[in-house]
Write a structure and sequence with these properties.
The chain is an alpha+beta fold. It has one domain: Winged helix-like DNA-binding domain superfamily/Winged helix DNA-binding domain (Arc Repressor Mutant, subunit A), CATH 1.10.10.10. Helix content is about 55%, strand content about 15%. Strands 1-3-2 form a 3-stranded antiparallel beta sheet. Helix 2 packs across helix 4. The protein is elongated and about 55 Å long. It starts with a helix and ends in a 12-residue tail after the last helix.
Length: about 90
């Protein structure tokens, strides 16, 4: 899955925002949502597949951090259009 498809879901965007602040355990992420832990786990799986987050084991905990490779791909795509942001909008 590509990063844009992964970020189309608001839950996954929120997870990325949380991980931009700091590394979190899977359980800590799940507690911030009104859904089951397995549902949050599926969102994390999609984000891993899109290379937007990475996971490491810390004893019994699975720790998630932001993965910059996926974000870099978004930035490369946006670079093609960034010059348009400074142009006046014509109606």
């Amino acid at each position: 899955m590509d990063a844009f498809a992964a970020l189309a879901d608001p839950t996954r965007r929120r997870i990325v925002e949380m991980l931009a602040e700091r590394e979190l355990a899977a359980g800590d992420i799940a507690r911030r949502f009104d859904m089951t832990a397995p549902a949050v786990s599926q969102h994390l799986k999609v984000l891993r597949a899109a290379e937007l987050v990475r996971v490491r084991n810390d004893a019994q905990r699975r720790m998630y951090t932001l993965e910059t490779r996926g974000l870099a791909g978004i930035d490369v795509w946006l670079t093609r259009y960034r010059h348009l942001w400074n142009e006046p909008v014509v109606n």
